[in-house]
Amino acid sequence: MRETGYLQKQPYFGAVVGRVANRIAKGTFTLDGKEYKLAINNGPNSLHGGVRGFDKVLWTPRMLSNGVQFSRVSPDGEEGYPGELKVWVTYTLDGGELMINYRAQASRTTPVNLTNHSYFNLAGQGSPNIYDHEVIIEADAFLPVDETLIPTGEVAPVQGTAFDLRKPVELGKHLQDFHLNGFDHNFCLKGSKEKHFCAWVRHAGSGRLLEVYTTQPGVQFYTGNFLDGTLKGKGGAVYPKHSGFCLETQNWPDAVNQPHFPPVLLRPGEEYDHTTWFKFSVA
């Protein structure tokens, strides 16, 4: 099994992330009166499922006519999480649209938040940055964070802030104008469980366009702030800071500790079922 390269330093390129994507404050939460302690792997917090999250395990594949389904059973207590969790992630391709469906069933009540951590650069493989990309995110609010990137609990309107991306902004200029190091924030989408528009990214030079739709209540817009140029990719390309962006559709970070955030608990007998669509075109 040639998985060793991936298991070395790897910022979740292309990965499924779970059992709980994003950060849980201090790696602890309380459920039915019992405190659970998770692996601390990101400053004082637990990130993306822990030290050996869903991105670092082998999945069982099943071929479909227009895609592939991966499944696995996350055992009770894996990375500190309660209950056994059966998970199915299905990728299907229809023309220029990639659909990712996530399903899960739990033997005990547990938080679940699954996402895809692909990085995109619409200018093409090896392009040094994403500054010439235009971005829209369909969100009226975002979650401010503390210095360890945990939401403060405030749901802040984007109006009049650097986080108002409801009309297209050119990333490089926008980051400069607002003196931002980059984005690594949850944007609050419509509360609907139906398919809704999430984001639009365009690279004017090539005409390439990415549209994202989802059933999730949030999206983490991440601009590759922690990429540092040490990883080599195809054709010897390196991945420096701001060389790619992620649109991680998700429940809101640290929701298990913030009762006014959308519910993140999956109970026995229920099914977790979310879908995200990545639609590529040339305009």
TrEMBL record:
Its EC number is 5.1.3.3. The keyword Ligase does not apply. One of its GO terms (biological process) is galactose catabolic process via UDP-galactose, Leloir pathway. It is an enzyme of class 5 (isomerase). GO terms for molecular function: aldose 1-epimerase activity; carbohydrate binding. The keyword Isomerase applies. The active site is at H117 (proton donor), E248 (proton acceptor). It comes from the Eukaryota. Gene3D superfamilies: 2.70.98.10. It is found in: Cytoplasm. Beta-D-galactose binds at N22, R23, H117, S118, Y119, D184. Its main location: cytoplasm. It catalyses: alpha-D-galactose = beta-D-galactose; alpha-D-glucose = beta-D-glucose. Pathway: Carbohydrate metabolism; galactose metabolism; Carbohydrate metabolism; hexose metabolism. InterPro entries: Ald1_epimerase_CS, Aldose_1-epimerase, Aldose_1/G6P_1-epimerase, Gal_mutarotase_sf_dom, Galactose_mutarotase-like, GH-type_carb-bd. One of its GO terms (cellular component) is cytoplasm. Keywords: Carbohydrate metabolism, Cytoplasm, Isomerase, Phosphoprotein. Monomer. Belongs to the aldose epimerase family. Mutarotase that catalyzes the interconversion of beta-D-galactose and alpha-D-galactose during galactose metabolism. Beta-D-galactose is metabolized in the liver into glucose 1-phosphate, the primary metabolic fuel, by the action of four enzymes that constitute the Leloir pathway: GALM, GALK1 (galactokinase), GALT (galactose-1-phosphate uridylyltransferase) and GALE (UDP-galactose-4'-epimerase). Involved in the maintenance of the equilibrium between the beta- and alpha-anomers of galactose, therefore ensuring a sufficient supply of the alpha-anomer for GALK1. This is Galactose mutarotase.
